[in-house]
Amino acid sequence: MERNEFIKSLGLGIALVCTGSCMTGCGSKGDEPTPTPGGGGGGGSVGTKVNVDLGSQLLTVGAFLASGGVLFIRMATGNATSSFVATQASCPHQGGALNWVQASNVIQCSLHSSKYTTTGSIVAQPNDGGVTSALKVYALSVTGTTLTATIS
């Protein structure tokens, strides 16, 4: 093999290896953590669980946090499940991030301003002429200072 042929084949090989590595490393969806599987009890179905530490997060009424695909919102004081709401964290219209707007008491999409109640009902359709659907709302439990949403 001539020197030029060797260098050309080496360059092509390196390019293929780099492209494959890049595609493998960039293939994951989003930066949010993957929900951890949890067990069900008493014969119920097994669901995925997403936890939030109430000792360091959601400390004030109106605070919200997206984690593991779940939007957690503190609605009232205390650590009872009724003090919190958990919905899907991305808009069903086009996947925009959802945020809690305490002044309006709505969950709003950052992309097209769709608005929802804390029960998941639609208040306003997207401002781009599209149509959205209701939000998924998740069951909650509190154990000590851990708030858990169960995704079915």
Radius of gyration: 22 Å
Beginning-to-end CA distance, first to last residue: 61 Å
The overall strand count is 11
Strand order of the largest sheet: 1-2-11-10
The topology string of helices and strands comes to: HEEEEEEEEEEE
Q: Identify the overall geometry.
A: globular
User: What are the segments in which pLDDT stays under 50 over at least 5 consecutive residues?
Assistant: 15-45
Helix content: 10-25%
β-strand amount: 25-35%
Major β-sheet profile: 4 strands, antiparallel
Count of separate DSSP helical elements: 1
Task: Write up this protein.
The chain is an alpha+beta fold and 152 residues long. 15% of the residues lie in helices and 30% in strands. The strands form three sheets. A four-stranded antiparallel beta sheet has the order 1-2-11-10, with no helix packed on it. A four-stranded antiparallel beta sheet has the order 6-7-8-9, with no helix packed on it. Strands 3-4-5 form a three-stranded antiparallel beta sheet, with no helix packed on it. It is globular, with a radius of gyration of 22 Å.
Secondary-structure map with pairings?
Layout: H1 3-25, E1 36-37, E2 48-53, E3 64-67, E4 70-74, E5 84-88, E6 98-101, E7 106-109, E8 115-116, E9 122-124, E10 139-143, E11 146-151
Antiparallel strand pairs: 1-2, 2-11, 3-4, 4-5, 6-7, 7-8, 8-9, 10-11
What brief labels describe this structure?
single chain, alpha+beta, 152 residues, 15% helix, four-stranded antiparallel β-sheet, globular, 1 helix
Question: What's the gist of this structure?
Answer:
The protein has one helix at residues 3-25, and strands spanning 36-37, 48-53, 64-67, 70-74, 84-88, 98-101, 106-109, 115-116, 122-124, 139-143, 146-151. It has 152 residues and is of the alpha+beta class. The model is unreliable at 15-45 (pLDDT under 50).
